[in-house]
């Protein structure tokens, strides 16, 4: 399908990109890897007047790890770079795993983690575990920089808190505290290239066998990736026995608000929410012990 006509802009600095966004105004869209944006344009769902490509802006690239401050994933860092980066794999294994589970190798070599979050699909593979880990979006705009925790970042399908004129410059993932572990679980019944029918990210803090803290985020079962707060409360202060994990799964499936669509029925999504929540808590607790 041919793309509609649009003005293509390729700034070399963040300042230039922000100025272009302000000058061109409404109808201007940002382009990272284009694996969501160009598909929408090709299908006629989006007809931008101008497209601002971000990939020539050096300051938006790269992945940086600071043992004190955590991980900074630049807005143009590819999914494949996140999945294969030694520091991400060593210190944030579930972040690397979620990126590695996104789409296929071709898409991971074009698409970015930032684009996955900004596209705001309820099923976005990288959202649940980053949200559970307390990651933040670093956003630049005409008034300077602001940071928004990912659990306040998504507003609805395709909608985030990013205002017109703003650009997400990086994703900041805090250091995982000692005694904490993380996990990402997902299921795509129609095969690897398809997006998740259900996905779950978890971070737990353990004191021996007892769970002292838990953050659980469910994907593809609500308009935005959602915290399962009642499930978090249920496991807090308890030993994560098989019985508690099963109860937690049941509670998470009650909290989930899925729809039926071509990927999965609502009932299937509820059942898989229970299964994946149990698995995510178990794996996160095991990771906390190592
Ligand atoms: C065949 C195929 C398979 C796929 N499989 C999966 C899958 O398994 N799991 C999954 O989660 N997704 C999947 N996707 C969706 C897509 O590949 C990912 O969401 C990808 O991470 C998007 O990144 P991108 O860099 O290509 O984003 P783009 O398409 O460039 O941008 C996406 C949106 O974010 C905005 N945006 C991009 N960067 C910024 C920024 N820095 N600041 C503000 N706004 C910004 C754009 O304007 C656009 O609205 C698939 C797509 C295809 C085509």
Strand coverage percent? 25-35%
What coarse outline follows from CA principal-axis ratios? globular
Largest sheet properties: 5 strands, antiparallel
Helix percentage range: 25-40%
Number of strands: 14
> Count of helical segments?
11
CATH topology of the largest domain: Uridine Diphospho-n-acetylenolpyruvylglucosamine Reductase, domain 3
**Which small molecules are bound?**
flavin-adenine dinucleotide
Distance between the termini: 50 Å
The succession of helices and strands, N to C, reads EHEHEEEHHHHHHEEEEEEEEEHHH
Looking at the overall shape, the CATH architecture of the largest domain is 2-Layer Sandwich
Arithmetic mean pLDDT: 96
Q: Class by helix and strand content?
A: alpha+beta
Task: Give a concise summary.
It is built from eleven helices and 14 strands. It is an alpha+beta fold.
What is the topological layout?
Blueprint: E1 7-9, H1 14-24, E2 28-31, H2 37-42, E3 50-53, E4 63-66, E5 70-74, H3 79-84, H4 86-91, H5 93-100, H6 105-108, H7 113-119, H8 127-132, E6 136-141, E7 144-149, E8 154-156, E9 159-160, E10 167-173, E11 180-187, E12 198-207, E13 210-219, E14 226-227, H9 229-235, H10 242-255, H11 266-289
Parallel strand pairs: 1-3, 2-3
Antiparallel strand pairs: 4-5, 5-10, 6-7, 6-10, 8-9, 11-12, 12-13, 13-14
Helix pairs in contact: 9-10, 10-11
The structure holds flavin-adenine dinucleotide.
